[in-house]
Write a structure and sequence with these properties.
Shape: globular
Helix content: 10-25%
Bound molecules: zinc ion
Number of domains: 2
Number of strands: 14
Order of helices and strands: EEEEEHHEEEEEEHEEEH
Radius of gyration: 22 Å
Structural class: alpha+beta
Largest sheet: 6 strands, mixed
Length: about 300
């Protein structure tokens, strides 16, 4: 775990890449960016880098880097509102990804996730999720006016004052078992040879329980019972909230019913295939079942 006093102060993203100190994976696992705690300080101060004298532009700590040159000597820097900030600030480099400053590297956040401590990934993910949401919600859906950072992580319309709150998409993720076997599937985006628990987004008007039954029937043609809630995990790619259940199989022979999965089948607890890493709730569900914590 990263002690609060050493937590990184800034998260800097370009697309889905996060700026991390070179060697952070081989080191102590504590990532990135600039630890300078001064409000309104230059984001990064490496003298030879293009990042010199970049400034956060927002007053909420949720910033988009807009300048690449130092402000005039007499110009006060834009406020960053660092006082009272609840968490590290975030910044998004717009346009093409620039070369990383010396001592830093760009790393795809999805790849970095598996090597980050859970609390560090949680903060990085929240930072990226908010920035990505802001990047894709620049105009008001009510009146078409431009939006600006508002209270409570919201974007406020500058014309009609409508508040737009960050989007969250709940998804159920389910470890189906029959006691000694787990039902695992392979989607086209999983790494070679990896199988995982089944998952799907909750639809409008649907309860979590109904979503579990529907998804398992649609994806694997299997009926289940005895749903148990095990926990949840925010997953920021791009804005999911994964809600984890276990369920007991009651009938049906698993098959990739709706084409979402390439393969689905039973795996004995002593002969599991390659499964997702510890950062994922899928792994937590599988581990809970393997430990016998599931009825
Ligand atoms: Zn509006």
């Amino acid at each position: 775990m990263t002690p609060p006093e050493t937590a990184p102060r800034w998260w800097v993203f370009a697309g889905r890449a996060v700026l991390l100190r070179t060697g952070w994976v081989a080191g102590d696992g504590i990532p990135p960016a600039e630890e300078d705690p001064r409000p309104a300080a230059p984001l990064l101060s490496t003298p030879t880098s293009r990042f010199e004298a970049l400034w956060l532009s927002s007053d909420s700590g949720l910033g988009v880097i807009e300048r690449e040159t130092a402000p005039d000597a007499g110009t006060p820097p834009p406020p960053t509102g660092a006082e009272g900030m609840r968490e590290p600030a975030q910044a998004l480099v717009e346009g093409p990804q620039p070369p990383a400053p010396r001592g830093y590297e760009w790393v795809d956040l999805r790849h970095a996730a598996s090597a980050m401590a859970p609390d560090v990934f949680h903060r990085a993910g929240r930072a990226w999720q908010l920035l990505e949401w802001r990047r894709t919600h620049r105009y008001c859906g009510v009146c078409g006016g431009p939006t600006a950072v508002g209270p409570y992580d919201a974007l406020a319309c500058t014309l009609c004052d409508h508040l737009h709150f960050p989007r969250l998409s709940p998804a159920v993720i389910v470890l189906v078992h029959d006691g000694d076997h787990a039902l695992l599937g392979r989607g086209p985006r999983l790494p070679e040879g990896m199988y995982s628990t089944l998952a799907g987004f909750v639809e409008p008007g649907e309860s979590l329980e109904a979503a579990v039954h529907r998804e398992i029937l649609e994806e694997a043609d299997v009926r289940i019972d005895d749903l148990r809630y095990l926990g949840s995990q925010p997953w920021p790619f791009p804005h999911s909230l994964m809600i984890g259940f276990t369920a007991r199989w009651i009938s049906g022979t698993p098959r990739p019913a709706d084409g979402e999965l390439e393969e689905v089948g039973w795996f004995h607890r002593d002969a599991l295939p390659r499964i997702p890493g510890p950062v994922s709730i899928a792994r937590a569900l599988i581990d809970a079942w393997r430990r016998g914590d599931v009825g």
